[in-house]
Amino acid sequence: MGLAYAMIYVALGASLRSVNSLGFLGVGSVAVLGVMSFWPEYKQRAETLRVWWLTLLFPAFLICSAIVLTLTRYAHPRVLDLYLYTLDGRLGFQPSFTVGRLLWQNTILREIAYYAYEALPLGMAFAFSLEWEAKIRSAASIVISFLFAAIGGYLIYNLFPAVGPIHVFGNAFPFSPPAVTARPSAIVNTGDPRNCMPSVHFTMALLIFWYSRQWTRWGRIFACGLLLLTIVATLGFGEHYLIDLVVAVPFALLAKTLATRAVRPAYVRMLCYATAGFLVSAWIFYLRCFFSFAMIPAAVSWALLVITVIPPMMLERELHQAATAALDGCEQAGDLEPLTGIEPVTSSLPRTRSTN
Fold first, then answer.
1. pLDDT over 70 percentage in the chain
2. Which one of 103, 122, 158, 197 has the lowest number of neighbouring Cβ atoms within 10 Å?
């Protein structure tokens, strides 16, 4: 069925490159699930119907994203890309232009990165399916994390509208980076959605990587590969600046903390909230209000990026361990369902734990 959808899409005039075959397989799978959910002779209709409703979240997410991101063009006719470009330049080079040149000089890597970038929704669905099929019990829901990241990202897009270097500099990307201005200012851009700061694309890939602790080795490798290729693609295709990915790290921690139902000890949750919330808001406030007046050297810029990335990564590990401890305690007390929102199941698959 997915192949049939793809053939119809090409017959209507689409190029083969624009056809994501795996995506059409997913469309076919959703259609089959829908039929099975209402098939009167199918014995597992109730469970299949629940899965089908959840699978509809992903295409609904894409449709809603397209609509709300289009509205940002009208709400914010001016964008703040030069602030992000200048901050990247203060690191001593332009990361997006550097990675962009690497991609354009390596055709194979460029194609792999392109399909990895476009297939992120498939990776999100794959992450959910692994969690569901293996009956992995987790104190944090990956779907809820995705939902918080999507909503929160849209809110921040309106606080700091930006579009990405390829949309601002055009043909100058990636081989001719313009000179960094000492006093950046807002510029007019009416044709592109404001979905740059922070990178929700990278946020989703990072969430998948964090949740992959409980997967098999091959699942973990898949998540790691998706994360690395997302970094390359978001920078190399000119959709984001490096600072977008840096701020996405505490932003992802905030999304996961919001989706975590219980932790033990409880102070870990509050520490994650405080750290992630402070880092994200501090960067937005600094870039909007003080960046033009603060000329800092490259060493200080690098230090700020490290401070933004390392503590959230360490706190996410603590959050995982605290959530696992709370889940273990709830299982021992026989009170699993209120914590996880899933019914206790018997599975032949061993429950894996990791302190990684």
1. 72
2. 158
